[in-house]
């Protein structure tokens, strides 16, 4: 199994995530990442963003990567029945009730003013990444949530690349004016149910360690802390 997951967006950026495995040494990970870093240099990519255990931090800084922040990772088994009684209505983008542009605008609104410290990509790059990572039916993964006729938030559940059962959310967020009402936890819980219907048996979610509200949502919906990683970045 690969020691890193890698998402490539042509010459613009690479997203790299360490896969922690039993029996692999620090040297194994260093050697594997050296190969990725060399390929990044050779192919002259715009920037590389890395999620990796902070035990490697001193070595990474010597390779000219800069630390952006730290994330916490939570997990939950999806074996039990997922209740999702809620007043919220939700639709997928694939239903055609709104346009791709309108969904992108909702995404942009939801990420406004959050506690996450990672450098945000332009929304055009975000939408391109969604279509590339999730494939031709990417619109069926993009959900938006309404209370009455008012937009509350969005979520993008999917099965993690290279797995058959690991549920992830490409993104999850609530619009600024609807925060602090408990609606984020509702959207998150409904999304876990959608994810279970996608045949996910467990969920993994992450957020910036400073995002106390998102951590509370994880805990409220039965998720437990699994890991911590640093966010590092290098660019040309």
UniProtKB/TrEMBL annotation:
Keywords: Transferase. Transmembrane segments: none annotated. The lineage of its organism: Bacteria, Bacillati, Bacillota, Bacilli, Bacillales. This is GNAT family N-acetyltransferase. GO terms for molecular function: acyltransferase activity, transferring groups other than amino-acyl groups. Residues 134-222 form the N-acetyltransferase domain. The keyword Cell cycle does not apply. Pfam families: Acetyltransf_1 (PF00583). Gene3D superfamilies: 3.40.630.30. It comes from Psychrobacillus lasiicapitis.
């Amino acid at each position: 199994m690969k020691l890193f997951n890698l998402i490539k967006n042509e010459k613009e950026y690479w997203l790299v995530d360490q896969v922690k495995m039993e029996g692999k040494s620090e040297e194994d990970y260093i050697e594997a990442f050296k190969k990725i870093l060399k390929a990044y240099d050779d192919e002259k990519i715009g920037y590389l963003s890395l999620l990796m255990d902070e035990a490697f931090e001193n070595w990474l800084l010597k390779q000219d990567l800069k630390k952006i922040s730290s994330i916490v990772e939570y997990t939950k088994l999806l074996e039990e029945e997922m209740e999702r009684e809620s007043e919220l209505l939700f639709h997928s983008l694939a239903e055609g009730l709104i346009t791709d542009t309108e969904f992108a605008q909702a995404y942009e609104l939801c990420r406004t003013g959050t506690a996450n410290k990672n450098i945000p990509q332009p929304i055009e790059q975000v939408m391109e990444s969604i279509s590339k990572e999730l494939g031709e039916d990417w619109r069926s993964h993009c959900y938006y949530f309404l209370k009455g006729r008012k937009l509350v938030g969005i979520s993008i559940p999917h099965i993690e690349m290279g797995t058959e059962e690991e549920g992830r959310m490409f993104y999850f967020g609530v619009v600024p004016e609807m925060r602090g009402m408990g609606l984020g936890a509702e959207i998150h819980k409904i999304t876990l149910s959608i994810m279970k219907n996608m045949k996910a048996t467990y969920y993994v979610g992450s957020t910036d360690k400073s995002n106390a509200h998102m951590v509370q949502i994880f805990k409220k919906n039965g998720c437990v802390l699994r890991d911590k990683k640093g966010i590092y970045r290098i660019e040309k």
